[in-house]
Amino acid sequence: MSDLQERPRPRFGRIPDAKHRSGLSRSTLYGLAAKHRGLFVKAGAATLVDLNVLDRIMDTFPPAEIKPPSR
What digits encode the pLDDT tens for the residues 11-22? Predict the structure, then answer.
């Protein structure tokens, strides 16, 4: 695979991966997991984040309203 080709994204990642991908804090991810069943899964002692579920949750976030600076 050349450096220019994109590698497929894994379906699951650890919490630091989800933080990096989403820009959300660990506590926000845990809050979302409490509201959205299936965001977190357990693999033994490891907590994994279903990145597909995370993407669907983030798709529901409203767009940011950016106001021009006041003069």
Answer: 999 999 999 999
> Which residues share a beta bridge with 43?
46
Is 4's pLDDT higher than 80?
A: no
Q: Which of 19, 6, 20, 24 minimizes the C-alpha distance to 61?
A: 24
CA dist 63 and 1 (Å) reads 36
Can you say how many angstroms the Cα of residue 8 is from the centroid of all Cα atoms in its chain? Answer: 16
Average pLDDT over residues 46-63: 97
According to the 3-state scheme, what is the secondary structure of 22-56?
A: HCCCHHHHHHHHHHCCCCEEEECCEEEEEHHHHHH
C-alpha–C-alpha distance, residues 28 and 47, integer Å? 15
| Four-residue CA torsion sign, 35, 46, 14, 8 | negative
